[in-house]
């Protein structure tokens, strides 16, 4: 399976930064969807492709890029290639970044990590790989994944939208032609919607009986007609990667690591600062 790449890369027990391993694994899912081909993790061309993505993503998500004069695209091969590349770029960066934050939270909150592993061990046999349907029986694990998404808030400001007609939203008048940047963070960190909006708290996604529940304010994929095209794929990837990794390993910070900077690096997505972890086979 695709997440076996990460399992293999982390199984050596040495300190490592998991970012590139996660990117390779997540990207290979998109590669199969888009190209019909899965790359070896040792493939140099694949590595070059991943390394080229970072500056491209930074430019593509910049204000300068969005404010360029762009003619209406023709429906031709060139446009099709660009659309496919957009799927490839977006489907790799966002999911791998979220998983990167998720592993950081697990080493910062070892009690949460232990509780996830206890739930997994009670539901799934040690020699059995976790499948997506298992999420129904893993409410705490599912809640932790959702809280990682909410708390990391990797896309604080959504993609720009163009108002196509004069519109009233509450008391605000928005004129036709206005460019709007949706503030995703205002929903994910709204104190009216979340008990402890500025704290990592998986309880945000659990009811009083411990069942998984998802509040309406959880909109990391945006919402409406322009909701993220890859939402379902991303949810599947994050559950499978996260649950199988925690079934196989216990994660902790590399020896000698002191303070970890949890403030994000601003960019197309909000990235964690560099950190190293060790993965101990369970």
UniProtKB/TrEMBL annotation:
Q: Which InterPro entries match?
A: Cyt_P450, Cyt_P450_CS, Cyt_P450_E_grp-I, Cyt_P450_sf, Cytochrome_P450_fam2
Q: Which UniProt keywords apply?
A: Heme, Iron, Metal-binding, Monooxygenase, Oxidoreductase
Cofactor(s) required for function per UniProt = heme
**Pfam families noted in UniProt:** p450 (PF00067)
| Gene3D superfamilies in the record | Cytochrome P450 (1.10.630.10)
Heme among keywords: yes
Which domain of life, per UniProt? Eukaryota
Q: Note whether Nucleotide-binding occurs among the keywords.
A: no
Which PROSITE patterns does the UniProt record give? Answer: CYTOCHROME_P450
- Recorded family membership: Belongs to the cytochrome P450 family.
PANTHER family associated with the record: CYTOCHROME P450 508A4-RELATED, CYTOCHROME P450, FAMILY 2, SUBFAMILY AB, POLYPEPTIDE 4-RELATED
Q: What is this protein called?
A: Cytochrome P450 2J6
């Amino acid at each position: 399976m695709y997440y076996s790449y990460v399992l293999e890369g982390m199984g050596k027990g040495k300190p490592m930064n998991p970012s590139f391993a996660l990117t390779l694994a997540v990207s290979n899912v998109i590669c199969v969807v888009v190209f019909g081909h899965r790359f070896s993790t040792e493939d140099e061309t694949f590595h070059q492709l991943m390394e080229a993505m970072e500056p491209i993503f930074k430019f593509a998500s910049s204000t300068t890029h969005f404010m360029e004069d762009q003619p209406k695209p023709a429906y031709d091969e060139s446009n099709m290639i660009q659309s496919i590349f957009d799927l490839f770029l977006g489907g790799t960066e966002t999911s791998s970044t979220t998983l990167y934050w998720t592993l950081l939270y697990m080493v910062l909150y070892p009690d949460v990590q232990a509780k996830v592993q206890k739930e997994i061990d009670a539901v799934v046999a040690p020699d059995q790989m976790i499948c997506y349907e298992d999420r129904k029986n893993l409410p705490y694990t599912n809640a932790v994944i959702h809280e990682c998404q909410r708390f990391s808030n990797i896309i604080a400001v959504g993609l720009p939208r163009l108002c196509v007609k004069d519109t009233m939203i509450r008391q605000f008048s928005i004129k036709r032609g206005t460019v709007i940047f949706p503030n995703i963070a205002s929903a994910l960190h709204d104190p009216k919607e979340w008990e402890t909006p500025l704290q990592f708290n998986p309880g945000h996604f659990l009811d009083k009986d411990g069942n998984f529940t998802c509040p309406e304010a959880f909109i990391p994929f945006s919402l409406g007609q322009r909701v993220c095209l890859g939402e379902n794929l991303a949810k599947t990837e994050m559950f499978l990667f996260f649950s199988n990794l925690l079934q196989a390993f216990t994660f902790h910070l590399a020896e000698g690591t002191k303070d970890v900077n949890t403030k994000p690096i601003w960019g197309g997505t909000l990235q964690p600062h560099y950190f190293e972890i060790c993965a101990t086979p369970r």
